[in-house]
Amino acid sequence: MSVPFHELKVSAVIRETPDCSSFELTVPLELQEAYRSKAGQHLTFELPWDDFKVTRCYSLSSCPDLGETLKIGVKRVEGGRISNWLNDNLKAGDSITASVPEGRFVLDPETRSGAPLFLFAGGSGITPIISLLKSALTITKRPITLLYANQNRDAVIYGEELERLAAEHSDRLLVHHHFDAEGGYLTAAEVAVLLRHTDISEFYICGPEPFMELIENTLAEAGVHDELVYIERFVSPADPDRVEVDAVDVASLEAPDTFSLWLNGRSRTVPYVKGQTLLQCAQAAGLQPAHSCESGYCGSCMAHVNTGKVHMRTHEALSERDIARGVALLCQSVPASPEPLELDSDSTSFRAASAVKSSYSKRASQLAAVAVFAFMVAGTLILRLVPQVVE
Q: Whole-angstrom Cα distance, residue 189 to residue 225?
């Protein structure tokens, strides 16, 4: 069964910057429960285009913990069909087809303690990040550092809201802006100087690929464990008139009769049907692994390949680092050998390049976070005595 789609009404359009608009969406009363979201999740939109339909994923910038109206932010992409159409044409009173909220880029419910939270946003990557930020400020007492990079000051999205949040929560929120036009491209040194308590902090990243790669590499060099790094990676799917033919003849690949899928703490044996994706087979067997766009571009259906081999028709939502660690997309994967195939959907609960868990104990980090919480608050106050640029 695919993710449900429904018609939502656009209740307001807010021009955030010359190139970005926010759209507030009204959910019918009978669908309120279906559209109950978590901070950091996204909606998939389906729009008619010529004689076919196209889909795009846009993150929610609204915070469900504050009871805010569903809101997405859409920034123009040069040559982009849908981002430009939405900014130019969608208006209050219009209806748009959207999926229910999906996505794994959410706060870990097991870590709502004193563990510091680092948020890294580049450009329109601020949309899920500001949702996470507001949620963490509302339901936790965690000290938070936000690094937000843009080309210039005019490109800052949700600038006034960030300024207000920084003022209201000055005891535990530090906001750092970086502008390429004023200081050149962001460097690893500028990121590294912000880091502290890297053994117990958690790190969320969303933005353009070069930005995310810089943050990922800097965190790795600082010794941050992969399971503490959560990444939201979106790319636009290929529209039906632009789909490239798979160079691999899937029908020629050998495959086992069944495969094993870990889901919700249990291993399930799933019959494999030749020509279908692993997601389709799992759904036919009555299972519902996390998924959303079903085009290989949102990453919601990530799973770790424990044994066996798979072929992915496309894997745009994954980095080379993800693939090297054995991460696969269920919606794009088919078996690629007759050997036993086992996948684990539970090991990639968050959109991080951390499918292979290290021997590091996350529970130990949580206990350590509680033990040093008082010290962290004092440390945050001391850091605020150092001159900061808060926009």
A: 19
Is the domain of 221 the same as that of 260? no
CATH code for position 316: 3.10.20.30
The predicted model scores a pTM of 0.77
1 alpha carbon, distance to own chain's centre: 23
pLDDT digits (tens, 9 = 90+) for 32-67: 999 999 999 999 999 988 888 888 999 999 999 999
Cβ atoms of 302 and 347 within 8 Å: the answer is: no
CB 103 within 8 A of CB 41: yes
Rounded distance between C-alpha atoms, residue 130 and residue 20, angstroms = 15
What 3-state DSSP class applies to 5? strand
Tell me which residue range forms the domain holding 165: 109-233+373-383
Q: Helix H segments across the chain?
A: 81-89, 126-139, 159-168, 180-183, 188-192, 209-221, 278-284, 320-324, 362-371, 373-383
95 and 116 in a single domain? The answer is: no
Whole-number pLDDT of residue 248: 67
* Helix, strand, coil shares, percent, the chain, to 5: 30, 30, 45
Whole-number percent of the chain with pLDDT over 70: 84
95 and 114: one domain? no
**Tens digits of per-residue pLDDT, 234-293?**
665 555 555 555 556 777 789 999 999 999 899 999 999 988 999 999 999 999 888 877
